[in-house]
């Protein structure tokens, strides 16, 4: 971010520094736009963004051309610094991603270990039941959840079915 060329006039050095700083600011803005939700969960990332914002703020005193990017960076800092609201903390069912009716309007979000997935559990008698478990669940935890739902864990096996058989 603070790279300076070793040669050239003072104006060339300033132009070089300004272009580098703008590129880094754009990169940080894109990174925060893509991973903003995950940044809220990572204290080191949040600290970096806040420290970066302070550094850019300081630089705007000497390089006025950076001021145009400061409001957007400030918005990102405020966004990731806020505690997620209760409505944002609710876990979404993974299968919602396959809803094609309003697919373009849905905001794509990365899958977290705490998100839940819906499983259809088929029984030999052609019936099925559904369970909802966190994405990060182990096979043993899935079997336990199925056993709890069915009332018995006797004879349970997990079978992966695919289009190839």
TrEMBL record:
Protein name (record): RPGF4 factor
Gene name linked to the record = Rapgef4_1
Q: List the InterPro entries.
A: RA_dom, Ras-like_Gua-exchang_fac_N, Ras_GEF_dom_sf, Ubiquitin-like_domsf
Which GO BP terms sit in this record? signal transduction
Q: Which domain of life is it from?
A: Eukaryota
Please name the SUPFAM superfamilies in this protein's record: Ras GEF, Ubiquitin-like
Swiss-Prot/TrEMBL keywords: Guanine-nucleotide releasing factor
One GO MF term: guanyl-nucleotide exchange factor activity
PROSITE patterns from the entry? RA, RASGEF_NTER
Which positions fall inside the N-terminal Ras-GEF domain?
A: 1-81
Q: Where is the Ras-associating domain?
A: 115-165
